[in-house]
Write a structure and sequence with these properties.
By secondary structure, this protein is mainly alpha-helical. It has 2 domains: about 45 residues, no CATH class; about 110 residues, no CATH class. It contains 6 helices and 2 strands. A two-stranded antiparallel ribbon has the order 1-2. Helix 1 packs parallel to helix 4 and helix 4 crosses helix 6. The termini are far apart.
Length: about 180
Amino acid sequence: MAYEGANSREDGSGPEPVYGPGDTAPGYATASVRDRHNVVDGPSPPYTAPYPPYPSDVPEPTPVSLNTAAALAYFVVPAVFFLLLPPYRSQPQLRFHSWQAIFYFLLGVAAREIEQVLASMLPSPVAFLLGSLLLLLLFAGWLVAVVKAVQGERCHLPLVGSFAEQVAQTSSLTR
């Protein structure tokens, strides 16, 4: 008794096995595969990963704004680059913040050395208290300078602000 139905085998031995799209078994017909809006007979195309974007698809890099660059200068290493790179060194505001950051860093190094000398001469609790207070004041000054730079203002830090202003106006390295 042969099985008769819509999906029967030619030899009448039962229904044809169902395979996924593009799967075929030996001796069986290939499945129909939908390719976008067209029906294509045959195995499905192999999977391909998406292509990387073309160079024209990559967005243009945005230049760093003057206020952002001035704030970045207080991390010292960018300050040196800002004083050397032509697009930035011609900006007086950025030159001031770069020089002030460098001088403030040197002031911090000198303060740390003075703290070490005092720590060897004073009792430990007093030296710790003075050192902590000094570092807190240096950090507070640095933070105020960064915030003022982001706002586009000049903040003359104690001991180095007026000197940085003078060097920024007369420096031959930055012109």
